[in-house]
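Project standup — Tuesday

K.O.: blocked on the structure for the chain from last sprint. Re-posting the sequence here as requested.
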Amino acid sequence: MAAALCALAKDQGAILTHSEKSWASITFAGARHRVEMEFVGEEAVDAGECFIAFLPEHEFAIPGQLVADADIAEVDHVLDPPRMVVTCEILLLEDG
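H.V.: unblocked you, prediction finished:
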């Protein structure tokens, strides 16, 4: 999943933190992930803005996993110097 997030961020974002919590329903099992990514510099912040816009609808291709939900939880943006920290939450379900 980390590689897929970095690719969506056009390799302009760095993962600062990643936590995972098991999740299950009657029919599905998986994990809820919380990922904090940092974008530093003008070009990276622009890529971060695109990341924010595209994450919720992005079609991930993660072997053995299905992305059931992907949302932006928090954004911290500083103008000078350009820096943005994006926190996203992703629900991954076991496929199969």
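K.O.: great, moving the ticket to review. The chain has a mean pLDDT of 94. Strands lie at 13-24, 29-40, 65-78, 83-94.
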